[in-house]
Amino acid sequence: MMNNRKIVSARLSAAQQTLLANLIRGEVLLPSDPRFGQAAQVFNARIKAHPKAIVRARDVDDVVQTVQFCTGEGLTPSVRAGGHGVLGHAVAGDIVIDLSRWSSVTVDPGRQVARIGAGARWQDVDATAWSSGLLTPGARISHIGVAGFTLGGGEGWLSRRYGLAADNLIRAELVCADGTRVVAADHSEPGLTACLRGSGGNFGVVTALWQQLHRPPRVLLGGRLLFSGRHARQALLAYSSFMRCAPEVLSGSIAFVTCGQEPGLPASLRGQPAVAINITVMCDDESTGQKYLDPLRRLAVRPVADSVAPVAYPHLQTMLDGHNQPGYRQHSAARYLPELSGAVIDALEEAWSRRPGPRAQFSLAWQDAAVARGSSRTSVFPHRTPAWSLYMMSRWTNPADDVLHTGWIRQFKQDLAPFAEQGCYLNMDDDHSPAAVRRSFRPHHRRIAESKQHWDPANIFRHTANIPPAPEACP
Ligand SMILES: Cc1cc2nc3c(=O)[nH]c(=O)nc-3n(C[C@H](O)[C@H](O)[C@H](O)COP(=O)(O)OP(=O)(O)OC[C@H]3O[C@@H](n4cnc5c(N)ncnc54)[C@H](O)[C@@H]3O)c2cc1C
Asked: Is the CB of 464 under 6 A from ligand 1?
């Protein structure tokens, strides 16, 4: 569960400060620095972390020096890329290795590969790749970091067709616990590479990633069909059967939301609960793509708004940005539901009727096809069975409301427990307790723990959904 306490830790000694400052060519921010507070802030405003120093590494040598400094001084590092990790692991270490400025992206259009700096966000990748007519499955919010998203799995709009972001990771460079630099790829370090595809930040500081790019069909359609909240059940039932036979070029999610006051929104929906069916379709011509949507457009209950139209991929990737701005307190959970039976829909409706505020929402995305085909030999992402990926989230501003919102998610999880798979997608869930991590990695836990024993026997990279080295992990 999320630790919401203020973590007050001792500061670095004067000797340690001098040592660190002399080792690093980039910037070392100490708590006395006026920029420190902002540098320690992450996307979730609920996280109040107090690291001893933040190292804005200038180059890979700085990362090596910081890791070796940590091991030498008995300190733990944590790694920050996009800063969206739900629990704030990025700033939970004694020393934060802040890579957020490493945002360079270069694309090799011939090989269809992007080399991505470890602090890049998806908007950096999407814009550069798309200028060569290429894309790769990334986050559904453009300001999420590539590294945290990909290392933990990475479910995006195009995952049914092209797999998870982790499945598209073809090479990574990292600095390991003893400070050595390693290139991970299937031909050089297959075991480590598989672990990087799904087990988060357990294995070291990734300094660059290479992602496979894809050339999509000529037309990309994106947008949403909005239904009144009064028709939530009908929309959900229709979407459920629609997605079970949808071609894999079609993807999206169904979200229970409260509409804002956006221009263009029908007056009847402003400030009202609604169901949004988010759509992406890849096709050779627009009319074929639009035809796929006929069953949803011809329901007895009609969408109140329909914005599905040709769109450039970088623009599609910002479709939900407006509803996901930083600065809010946040709590979230994720579950996999094998089916949307009547009882599941009852539980979802019941949870929705108890929502604690206008920024409480949940969404369901059907994951099958390329996600299910992903190899468990070359990756450790454990959730490959076709299922609905459910993401429950609430956002608010007043700390006095914490219990209200976290309580809503807790109850939501309890109500769905009889219908959900064991374990969850940890990138989107606020429970990284050892039991939750073990449950979630169930088919691969031992294998990851054994690799961890080899690469990080002292478990210095523990500020993540942590899988301890084998002796502890496998009683
Ligand atoms: C609003 C919102 C929407 C989301 N939507 C989706 C979604 O659609 N699909 C999905 O799959 N996930 C989604 N997520 C979850 C997201 O994938 C994770 O939060 C992810 O960890 C964020 O990565 P980051 O780099 O931004 O975060 P950070 O907080 O910077 O990193 C998270 C963790 O990843 C590890 N890490 C990061 N960089 C490195 C590195 N260079 N080397 C080693 N370890 C590293 C560290 O353990 C770090 O603590 C969403 C999250 C939010 C807040």
From this structure: yes
**Residue to substitute in 317, 390, 427, 460 for testing ligand 1 pocket (most ligand atoms within 8 angstroms of CB):** 427
Q: How many CB atoms lie within 10 A of CB 50?
A: 17
Q: What is the pLDDT of residues 98-130, one digit of tens each?
A: 999 999 999 999 999 999 999 999 999 999 999
Low-confidence residues of the chain, pLDDT below 70?
Answer: 1-9, 471-475
Residues 176 and 251 in one domain: no
Residues found in the chain: 475
Gap from CA of 114 to ligand 1 centroid (Å): 19
Burial per residue of 260-278, b for 16 or more beta-carbon CB atoms within 10 angstroms, e otherwise: eeeeebeeebeebbbbbbb
Q: Where are the beta strands (DSSP E) in 58-204?
A: 77-80, 95-98, 105-108, 113-117, 169-175, 181-185
- Are both 78 and 137 inside the same structural domain? no
**In percent, how much of the chain has pLDDT > 70?**
97
Residues in Cβ contact with 455 at an 8 Å cutoff, skipping those fewer than 6 apart: 176, 177, 192, 203, 204
What are the pLDDT digits (tens) for 44-75?
999 999 999 999 999 999 999 999 999 999 99
Cβ-based neighbour number of residue 448 at 10 Å: 26
As a whole number of angstroms, the distance between CA 60 and CA 346 comes to 52
Q: Tell me what pLDDT residue 198 has.
A: 98
Residue closest via CA to ligand 1's atom 36 equals 148
Q: Inter-axis angle of helices 14-23 and 60-73, to 10 degrees?
A: 150
Host domain of residue 383: 219-428
Tally of CB atoms within 10 A around 249: 21
Q: What pLDDT shows up at residue 3?
A: 44
Atom of ligand 1 nearest to the CA of 118: 41
CA angle (380 as vertex; 374, 383 as ends), nearest 5: 60
Establish if 434 belongs to a structural domain. no
Say if residue 416 is in the same domain as residue 361.
Answer: yes
Instruction: State whether the beta carbon of 97 lies less than 6 angstroms from ligand 1.
Output: no
SS3 121: strand
450 inside domain: no
Range 154-180 burial, b when 16+ CB lie within 10 A, else e? bbbbbbbbbbbbbbbbbbbbbbbbebe
Tell me, using a 6 A CB cutoff, whether residue 49 lines ligand 1: no
Q: Please, are residues 286 and 219 in contact by the beta-carbon 8 Å criterion?
A: yes
Residue 351 domain flag = yes
255 lines ligand 1 (CB under 6 A): no
Number of domains, the chain: 3
